[in-house]
User: Fold these one by one.
Assistant:
Number 1:
Amino acid sequence: MVSSTIAGADYGLTLLWALAAGVLVKFAVTEGGARWQLATGRTLVRGWRDHLPTWAILAFFVYFVTWTYFVSSALVAASALVPAAIIPSVPLPVWGLIHAVAALALVWFGRYEAFLNLMKVFVGFKLAAVIAAALLIVLWSGADWAATAAREPLTPAYALSLMGGVGGTVTLLSYGYWMREQGWSGTARVPSARVDLTVSFLIAFVFSAAMMFLSSQIEWSGEILDQGPRLCLMLADRIGQEVGPIGRAIFLAGFWGAAFSSVLGVWHGVPFLFDDFLHLWRRQPPTGQRGAAYRSWAGYQTAAAISALLIPRPVWLVFAYTVVGSLFFPFVISTLLWLNNSRFMPAEWRSSAVINVILGAALTLYGYLAVSAL
């Protein structure tokens, strides 16, 4: 949501190629991880432990700790933008604290079924709000199509941010654990996972493209990364010009729903990775959502988000997270290209030529962009 807004403000719709590439790669990565798990009965993290050198696992864990700090603080900051913009008398760090504690409480006491139902409501509402806003501008007063051209020279960091932001980064690994919570196992579930992921990433593309379009229709002043809470208000005001205060309020609610649903997804899904890491390292079975490992990582995410609330540039924080998250893909793509074409994978479920071409091209692109950005 935020990375799409940033991209639309400076580049209009000219980065749709990066959005489409990001969605395609995220689908291939998530499908590859899900197929590995359903065909082998082992999570991708366990596949890494069994078949990668110890130094690679430790290096990824160090990255995972750092990435968790960025993603937790960035998403809480994004969620706090809306209430901080509407009620500026309450500082943004206070709103962030409320969101972080609320997410921890929902994960600590809630169960998977309740989380799933709540996420469905958030996703449906945010999608409806953003698409309706874009259609109203196109059909009501007419869009300024000249504004969809690039206003700034392209830099690799912006492309990385957009590709990293759409559909998630390390959080894609959560899908395997949600399959497990849902009771999905065995290769009979591979077609279900593919349909599930196709719909999910199609929604992500439409949502992000609509955000890019909306952002291109606004006269931005100054550096967008410094906008803070004004970011969502400027978007909402543009909608309000078309449909009045009710439309403005609906868009703000959708903006908040998109951000807080991401917070819930990360708070619920990411601790499963730490639970898996820790117990695989100890050669013990994971303890799941009610275990001490899971809850301790959810607590770390909350503490990380709260500690970062003093950073005065929340939009910059989101941008930094999406760039840092993109650096994960050369690693995960490399391992999928190897594991899903190796003797460890049943022959009938190894990657097709199409998937291998997508992942190979993505590895080249991400490697180039990452080196250029760094």
Note: The chain has a mean pLDDT of 85.
Number 2:
Amino acid sequence: MAEGVPRKGAALPHPSAKGRKGSGGECSRAAHPCGTHSPTTRRRDLVAAALCALAAPVVAAAEGARWFRTSDGVRLRYLEAGSGRVVVFVPGWCMPGRIFASQIEALSRRWRVVALDPRGQGDSEVPRAGYEPTRRGQDIRDLLTHLGGGRVVLAGWSLGVLDALSYADMAGDARLAGLVLIDNSVGEGVPPPPRASRFFQNLRQRRDATVRGFVAGMYRTPQDSAYLDGIAREAQRMPVEASIRLLSYPRPREFWRDSLYAVRRPVYYAVTPRLRGQAELVAQKHPQPVVEVFDGAGHALFVDAAARFNASMEDFLARRAAWA
């Protein structure tokens, strides 16, 4: 398995669905005895209904699912909420864009937030080809063209880190106000020693159990069982061999390092402790770095430590990103 890709025990998160029902909050209405309603009861019901509408999360009203076609004709979906300057999230291996639900809800109050379902993931089309870094980078480029002009902050998590760096390698940093890389290797430091792994074999022989174990391992905080089940099901949409190709990008680790340092815009590198050494090197070598280690969080650190991560993102977007 390539060093820079998600490992077994990494996770995909989705937080904001946790603890919420339906589209974001439900109110119950008790019927008046015998099915009749007095004027007082009707007024009370109207007030209750209005309060329910006001109580629904802002993102439920503002968020929308949209689609675009890539330059090779594949129909991809993305979630969008808010207005203003744009931040684009790219999820990890086999994950849906909705895993960034907490970020969509929190950041869309001030920013235009987009979360991509990459090809074969979420509700996007599942094509036969394109599960390699050049095409995935081009998909991001096509999305940015579709979204319109102006700079964006591009945020990739796990495999999405490599997809974002693939985009930067082919397109440069002209459209970037900043780059956010969440918990994956960027090819810095001494490579880890090779180790035997049965992950690919397990995917081929008992995919459902393997993916469910992978998903559960992404978190350090308790997650709702229905949420984990939904993520695990979505993570098995693409053909198993395509999912394996995503974990076998044909690039040397130095490619990711060189792609990162070619980006001269501000970079925010958010990692768990296993990548602390790489984060320290990025802090030393990149001209505009922000690095943060999330002790106690799992691979889906933006779910486990959502409040802290969202606050760091707000600060990066407001104070660090080079929008001009």
Note: The mean pLDDT is 86.
Number 3:
Amino acid sequence: MNKYYKKTLNLLEPLKQPAMAIGFAFIVGAIVMLFTGANPIEVYGIMFKGAFSSQFYLSATFAKATPIILTGLGASVAWRANCFAIGGEGQMIFGALTAALIAIYLPGPLWIRIIISMIGGVAVGGGMSLFSAYLFDKLQMSLSISTLMMNYSSKFLAMGLVVMFFLDTTSTGGMLKQTKQIPEGMRFPRVNADYALTIGFFIAVIIVLLVWFLLNKTKYGYESKMTGYNPEFSRFGGINAKRIMYLSLFISGVLSAFAGVSEVYGTYFRYVSGSLVSGGTAWIGLNAALISAYNPIGVLISSIILASIQTGGTAISRFTDVPLEISQILQGCITLFISAKIIIKWRRKKKLIKVVEEGGN
């Protein structure tokens, strides 16, 4: 009996962190609603219905969750290895733009264009992340700062390239900063013609399983975990921490860039300037990674929940007097609680290191 009990606990482990953070956030949200005169139970019921109550709403939630899952996996791989990069947004942007341009302008059969387009998109994202690793390795430039700055530069550089060279002037007369559409035969098939869900979501789930295997069943996974615990100690243990950093950031960039590629192939069918920034997808993905403690299965679950808060939030604004911003309050509270957890763990770790050092002296 104890054996099955322990197995059940291990299976449920990825749910613990998301459940605590999201549970506290919903309590805070309920308190805010009470102050505004709204009934939290009624509002949350409408939110749940607006996210899961029908195939239409469920497909919208899963479609919204797809890029969040991929950027969350990217953040998990990097942060697990002690590489605090936050460049997922920029990697999404250039992954999407590169994939769209190759799909539109490369000659040849569609299946070849699909393969080269996807490889090109993820390669650009991986390359951007490698450049951040190089700046840290050679110039000691903070990963957080360099990747954050790349987000802003990527946004405006991509916009400039579209406007100057690749602007679609046929559909809106150039009013929208977007490329032409990719060919219809290259788009992700929809699960149902009437719903937004495409095979992109199922590809993301497969990638979750692959990343879980990579992090838990391979030599790289063990070495990245040890490097994340203590880079200096891992070096003394024979682990090449520099190699782990480069590899982790490259994988992270590839995953984040594929989030942008999936949006081109499954949602917009073109690159639309600002579309990957307006929803804060990469930052929500980082939240998913943090609240799941970098566990890929936890990222999948957290991403769906965070996506449901967004899709359910639109239902709240339609059917109640509670504004759509309640979903942003919930996400902000989740971020706050996770940040507090990280600070507490960091202070405990620092205190433990101090105790060990004093004991050694």
Note: The two ends are 47 Å apart (CA to CA).
